[in-house]
Design goal:
2,3-Dihydroxybiphenyl 1,2-Dioxygenase, domain 1, 22 strands, 310 residues, globular, 8-stranded mixed β-sheet, mainly beta, 4 helices
């Protein structure tokens, strides 16, 4: 079995690269490379890019990529049904990939050998003065309303027709493990969503790199990008409001994963998320089942509208 080490990037097709670049720049990403037909945007981490936009006649989600540790992983994946051969990646950092097509048409890339880029400057986290634990002494905070700086891609959410088959597919192809389950409200026996994480053994990883949810309309639900802290999320929130972008839902705190979230729509209707303060887990973590209502998935803050879950 191949084993994913982390999520790498998401890819979209759009009709206007200029509009996408303008939004993503205000969202906190930085141009890594651009050609007449493709735009690569990065964050502050050493990943050479996190978001790929390709020019096309219509707007669509193209897929999500996961980094694997060795070329041997690609060799394992290439012969499987629905897989391409091993291909060179025509993007910053080069590398190789295998493109795998799921039953719903989702394209999942396994990538290896992409060269890292120098990290970009990012401020230290704001020290927080809780009532019983003061971290900031003689040092007032002066956060800015600004685009902030995305650090990394955290996760992606896919809607699929057959939830159970998709979860098995990711387990068998990439070794992804369940962190928590979403169930029909009031019935823990009917799982309709699974939060999947990379298997790094004793090493701590994000609560989820992927969420798979049952749907009659397969598509992407959102892609999510990590910010440094709450000040970064809130400063970016006000900045994007002032720039006239469409707020989808935010700010609030999730139940499963615990992230403080802020959702926006890009100019082409794609939902993208800023988040901070997410859970990290390792092999000692045991999945739980949540069988509550959609509104109960938000612990505090903005409650998602009904169309958020369609």
């Amino acid at each position: 079995m191949a084993r994913a080490a982390d999520i790498a990037y998401v890819s979209y097709q759009v009709t206007d690269l200029d509009r996408m670049e303008a939004f993503l720049t205000d969202f906190g990403l930085v141009r890594a490379a651009r050609t007449p037909d493709a735009l690569f945007m990065r964050g502050a981490s050493t990943a050479p890019y996190l978001h790929v936009s390709r020019r096309g006649a219509s707007n669509a989600f193209l897929g999500v990529a996961f980094r694997v540790e060795t070329r041997d992983d690609l060799e394992v994946l290439a012969p499987l049904p629905g897989s391409s051969g091993i291909e060179h990646i025509n993007g910053p950092g080069g590398g190789n990939r295998v493109v795998m097509t799921m039953a719903d048409g989702h394209c999942i890339e396994a990538v290896h050998g992409i060269m890292q880029a120098p990290a970009l400057p990012v401020r230290e986290p704001s020290p927080f003065n809780a009532a019983t634990a003061k971290q900031r002494m003689n040092a007032p905070l002066r956060p800015q309303r600004e685009s902030g700086r995305v650090l990394r891609l955290g996760h992606c959410v896919l809607k699929v027709r057959d939830h159970d088959a998709a979860v098995r597919w990711f387990a068998e192809r990439l070794g992804l493990l369940p962190s928590d389950y979403l169930c029909v409200p009031g019935d823990e026996s009917k799982v309709i969503g699974t939060f999947l994480r990379c298997d790094r053994g004793v090493d701590f990883v994000d609560h989820h790199s992927l969420l798979v949810v049952q749907s009659d309309a397969p598509d992407v639900h959102h892609s999510s990008f990590e910010m440094q802290d709450l000040d970064a999320v809130m400063g970016a929130h006000d900045y994007l409001v002032e720039r006239g972008y469409r707020l989808d839902c935010g700010v609030g705190r999730h139940l499963l994963g615990s992230q403080i979230f802020d959702y926006w729509r890009d100019p082409f209707g794609n939902r993208v998320e800023h988040y901070t303060d997410g859970d990290v887990v390792n092999q000692a973590h045991r999945p739980s089942k949540f069988a509550g209502t959609a509104e109960q998935t938000t612990q505090w803050g903005a409650k998602p509208p009904l169309e958020f879950f369609t």
